[in-house]
Structure formats: C-alpha cells, structure tokens
Amino acid sequence: GTRPVNLGQILIFTSGADKIPPLGFGHKPTIQFLHPEDHGNRIFPEANTCDVTLRLPLHGTYLQFRERMESGILQSPTFGFA
C-alpha cells in the first residue's frame, strides 16, 4: 500500500487482464529472468500477455530493481502512443 504499483497493475502488465479469469489462464503463468549475458543490458520488465510470462531484469541493487520495475509498469499503458 505504500508503493505506486499494486498487484492488480502487475497482473494487468503480465496478462492484460484486470482479474483472474474464472477458469484460470490458458497458460500457466511464469517468471523469467533477463540475465545480461543472455539478453544484453535490459533494465525494464517485459511481459508476454499471450503466454502470461513476466520477464524480470537483474540489477545490482534492490533499489534499482524497484525503481525500474515501477517505472516500466506505470509507463506501460502509454506504450505505442506519441
């Protein structure tokens, strides 16, 4: 309750749904980690809403991780708009 991002926003970011469907998701939700040696220096979270996959970047500190997670999720509704 003290952070700008809540679990509902994480669900929307990850799945595109604002609530869990009554019969669940068609795919089992998964979390993947974006290791720099495999994926370059990605700093923001990514999601595949078709597969219900949340991809988390790795950071040197929790503060960096939290700030970039919040920023990525909060800015995602405007992605693609200029």
From TrEMBL:
The keyword Transferase applies. This is HECT domain-containing protein. The active site is at 50 (glycyl thioester intermediate). GO terms for molecular function: ubiquitin-protein transferase activity. Residues 10-82 form the HECT domain. Keywords: Transferase, Ubl conjugation pathway. The keyword Transferase applies. It comes from the Eukaryota. InterPro entries: HECT_dom, Hect_E3_ubiquitin_ligase.
